[in-house]
Design a protein that fits this description.
By secondary structure, the chain is mostly helical. It contains 4 helices and 2 strands, in the order βααααβ. It has one domain: Arc Repressor Mutant, subunit A (Orthogonal Bundle), CATH 1.10.10.10. Helix content is 61%, strand content 8%. It has a two-stranded antiparallel sheet with strand order 1-2. The chain is globular, with a radius of gyration of 11 Å. The chain starts with a strand and ends with a strand.
């Protein structure tokens, strides 16, 4: 299964990268390793993404992004 972001205007390019990994199920550590950034930087991006979509956890984020057609599952 592939995740495609349909709309990128709300988030920065880096936040979109983090969002794709979050939705795919990567941990903060895995995201940090993939993007060559620290875990605390990943946590900061995650907090910004949660705030932007007004969600509190990854499950809510996945639900919100699918419901609002921000991502498509292919």
């Amino acid at each position: 299964m592939e995740i495609k972001l349909k709309e990128k205007s709300i988030l920065s390019e880096r936040e979109n990268e983090v969002l794709e990994y979050l939705i795919t199920g990567y941990t903060n550590r895995e995201i940090a390793n993939k993007l060559y950034i620290s875990i605390s930087t990943v946590k900061t991006y995650v907090e910004k993404i949660y705030a932007e979509f007004n969600v509190h956890n990854r499950i809510e984020l996945i639900y919100y992004t699918i419901k609002n057609k921000i991502v498509s599952l292919e």
